[in-house]
Write a structure and sequence with these properties.
Blueprint: H1 2-8, H2 10-21, H3 33-46, E1 50-54, E2 61-66, E3 74-80, H4 88-91, E4 101-103, E5 106-108, H5 116-133, E6 139-145, H6 155-161, E7 170-173, E8 185-187, E9 189-190, E10 192-201, E11 207-208, H7 209-212, H8 219-230, H9 251-258, H10 264-271, H11 281-290, E12 293-301, E13 311-312, E14 315-324, H12 330-343, E15 349-357, E16 360-361, H13 369-380, E17 385-387, H14 397-402, E18 407-409, E19 425-427, H15 428-447
Helix pairs in contact: 1-15, 2-5, 5-15, 9-11, 13-15
Length: 448
């Protein structure tokens, strides 16, 4: 029955996604945000939701409810309608980012995988249930935010202010990539993310390197040396109290990643290089899910144009993101890095925190895991892996830490979705499998 219902409505389900992708909704610039909110409000009301639009200090949060108020089970569903910026010319897109194109099983366009093709699959399941069966068997509470790509800053405040209204039995939502070869997974957590800016200052003006080289401060070299002193060549943060060695990984988590496969050929094709973990598949997943990672995402210093300039520049700037794991507090990690800079004598380097999202985890053996696993297995026609964590970050902590809920993430985007990069895509087949999974999940929740 579910397969037939989704097959008969596949054209309309896909069209909803295409219509959403055409609305830019870029949180960094605000482009298209209002139009996307209006689009979602109209669709949600048509699907039987009572919809509220809450203004924030940034972009609106859409909150909606549907289903019987006295239902025995309540599902909290989350998604984000904002997308990462897309520069068609500078980045080298093969299609126009906000004009979706279907080629075979692929849907190309910004937001196709992150996150429109994911939350709309789950909403498509709810819409299909209403159309084919009438009233929902459970209460559904929905949060759609417009600031995930810039750190979800307004979301914790919204959740804190609405704790009573957001009471639920389980949070299940879709985000992140699946494993290679369209292998479904259940993610029982996410890594956190700390954004940092390093500003290294020297003289009050740029100096001639012949007249002052060797006697004047050199902020570019200072910053290079500092980064080299806090991170080893493998990307491991070595700062006492915040580093790789300070993280204790639970034996159950290590066991969970021990048998997970790595598609080395697919990785090589997608990335253009081999994994830094070599042939050790367990270490690959341990590093990606269970260990922190330090990345320099930007570095600006000196002159890099044609020819050369003999100048000691007065300032150098670097930006970094630190992926955090369970037990690491973003504020404490930032403070530890500042303290380490002072201890090493880098007085000219200012360290600013740009954003901080804690890691989040739900136990691998939680009682709701079999229910969600079976629903996804039916939706995809193959058993999902149950893994400790997503390598990336979502605001999962607001559900697990602020609301105290178990939270399970079901990725619906392909491994090579290229989110945050040119030529983002998803697959029609995975999108529809997500709809089927959502319908099976509704059936299972009704029996819970």
């Amino acid at each position: 029955m579910i397969d037939d219902a989704v097959r008969e409505r596949s054209g309309a389900l896909v069209q909803t996604l295409l219509d959403s992708i055409r609305i830019a909704s870029v949180s960094l610039t605000g482009e298209g945000i209002g139009d996307q909110v209006a689009f979602l409000r109209k669709r949600l009301e048509g699907w039987g939701f009572a919809v509220e639009v809450h203004d924030t200090t940034s972009h609106p949060i859409i909150y909606a409810e549907a289903g019987p108020a006295d239902a025995k089970f309540t599902w909290l569903l989350y998604g984000h309608y904002d997308v990462y910026p897309a520069d068609e010319k500078q980045e080298g897109w093969r299609t126009k980012p906000f004009e979706p194109v279907i080629e075979g099983d692929r849907i190309w366009g910004r937001g196709a995988g992150d996150n429109k093709g994911q939350h709309l699959a789950m909403l498509g399941a709810i819409a299909t249930w209403r159309e084919t069966r009438g009233e929902l068997p459970v209460r559904i509470k929905l949060i759609l935010e417009g600031d995930e790509e810039t750190g979800s800053v307004p979301l914790p405040k919204f959740v804190e202010a609405n704790r009573a209204r957001l009471k639920a039995d389980l949070c299940v939502y879709s985000d992140g990539p699946m494993f290679p070869n369209d292998q479904p997974v259940l993610l029982m957590g996410v890594r956190g993310n700390l954004g940092l800016e390093f500003i290294s200052k020297g003289a009050k003006r740029n100096l001639h390197s012949g007249n002052f080289g060797g006697v004047a401060p050199n902020p570019t070299l200072d910053l290079i040396h500092f980064l080299a002193e806090i991170v080893d060549r493998d990307g491991k943060l070595t700062v006492p109290g915040a580093g790789y060695a300070d993280v204790k990984v639970a034996p159950a988590d290590l066991e969970a990643v021990r048998t997970l496969p790595v598609d080395h050929e697919g990785f090589r094709e997608s990335v253009g290089a081999d994994p830094t973990t070599g042939s050790d598949d367990a270490l690959f997943h341990e590093r990606l899910m269970l260990r922190p990672a330090f990345n320099v995402s930007g570095f600006a210093a000196g002159y890099s144009g044609a020819g050369s300039k003999s100048i000691i520049f007065k300032e150098a700037i670097a930006k970094a993101d630190v992926r955090l794991v369970a037990g690491q507090d973003p504020v404490a990690v930032a403070d530890a890095i500042r303290a380490h800079a002072a201890k090493l004598g880098y007085k000219g380097i200012e360290i600013k925190s740009l954003k901080g999202t804690p890691a989040s985890r739900t136990p691998l053996d939680h009682a709701f895991v079999p229910m969600v696993r079976d629903a996804v297995a039916k939706g995809f026609g193959r058993d999902p892996f149950v893994v400790p964590s997503l390598g990336g970050t979502t605001p999962d902590f607001v559900f697990t830490k602020l609301l105290g809920l178990p939270s399970i993430v079901i990725p619906l985007a392909p491994y090579d979705e290229n989110n945050h990069a040119p030529n983002e895509s998803t697959k029609v087949s995975l999108y529809l499998a997500g709809v089927r999974s959502g319908l099976h999940l509704l059936e299972a929740m009704a029996r819970a």
